[in-house]
Amino acid sequence: MTATDRSIELITAAAQAAADKLAHDVIAYDVSDVLSITDAFLLASAPNDRQVKSIVDEIEERLQKELGVKPVRREGDREARWILLDYVDIVVHVQHSEERVFYALERLWKDCPEIELPADAKATRGKAAAHAELQAAEDTVEPGGGW
User: Fold this and answer.
1) Per DSSP, which regions of 34-88 are E strands?
2) What is the pTM of this model?
3) Phi and psi based region of residue 126 (left: phi greater than 0; alpha: psi -120 to 50; beta: remaining)
4) Which of 8, 3, 4, 24 is nearest to 116 (CA)?
């Protein structure tokens, strides 16, 4: 069994919304063969809690406006470190970059087929690593501009 056309449509819209809000490392997996509760997972991350919430809000708004769907469940709002949107057909995980590295959901689903995403979403791959390198470089700069 593979993800339904409707699931692919939802994943594509959610991935584009995440990319539009500058999410990092957007990726989707077809989990329909290994899970009976949903067809697909979308994973995305951001370097801070405020951006995590912004990405989730954009996904929710876009899917409601364009496709007429609301999540049946939204979890993780309080701390905004890992917010889950459950649309039944798909589940969206937006994580703070630290949680993304720690929980490494990609390792759990690596044997599942990836779902083709829009070019903007694919372009987010590697952004978390680039952001971390930039932050590390900025942290080594001494006050006054010296190294």
Assistant:
1) 40-46, 73-75, 82-86
2) 0.87
3) left
4) 8
* Pairing status of strand 90-96 against strand 24-30: unpaired
Q: Quote the pLDDT of residue 134.
A: 63
CB atoms closer than 10 angstroms to residue 43:
22
**Count of residues for the chain?**
147
Burial (0-12, 13-18, 19+ Cβ within 10 Å), 1: exposed
With CA atoms as reference, report the closest residue to 42 among 1, 79, 9: 9
Note the pLDDT tens digit of each residue in 46-55: 999 999 999 9
**Maximum CA extent, the chain:** 60
Handedness of CA 65, 71, 72, 77 (dihedral sign): negative
